[in-house]
Sequence to fold (266 residues):
Amino acid sequence: MAKITVNDFIKKKADSKKISMITAYDYPFAVIADEAAVDAVLVGDSLAMVVQGLDNTLPVTMDEMLYHTRMVSRGVRNAMVIGDMPFMSYQAGVADAVRNAGRFLKEAGAAAVKLEGGAEVREQIRAMSRADIPVMAHIGLTPQAIHRMGGYKIQGKTEEAARRLIDEAHTVEDAGAFALLLEAIPMSLAKSITDAISIPTIGIGAGPYCDGQVLVLHDVIGLFERFVPKFAKRYVNLKEQALHAVNTFREEVENGTFPAEEHSFK
Ligand code: KIV
Fold:
């Protein structure tokens, strides 16, 4: 199988084939995601919460994002690796944004970057695209704006807010984004946006009418318990299985059944 590129994203939309994307933050889970043949692996800044144990995504740094993206790139052969631009790596100016986005490609093996925002980051998207850095935009619930939004709330519920999001979608498309992530918006709005633009939409909490779907890995495999969003689906409870394994190990150490002869040298 060949490496997935931005052209495959565009073609999938044209062919009405769904795009699958999942987050990963390290080598072993990148290998799993790639073997599962997802189209893209997002090294999301959600790692601040699900890996680093922080309360929100704001504190994670560029260097930490690059560190995790490098690990993921080593584990991925076919999927597109997308680096998520952390808070304040692109908001302050276009030059900053291009330089930081470029680091994901140059230093960490990513093939694209994602950033949050619509009209307010139009110039950043335009400049990155001109620098040959594929950009996925992200509108709706944008977790880096948690303090402005007053929490993690569904967006685009009023007619005016919905119209604004449709405008934002056109803006990021015109600026050169190759795809658009829609987070936590009503499914009818996600459908209107998906129908209105030529670039693929990837939904999370945006219903079934998007061109693709993304989930946070730790929600999918049951490794993040602090809160589970309504839109997440848990396919396995790895926390339970890992806890059982480590508990059994401890018991076997305490009762002397581990190590057995086959784990020992003569
Ligand atoms: O950081 C992240 O994991 C995200 C999700 C919306 C997929 O941006």
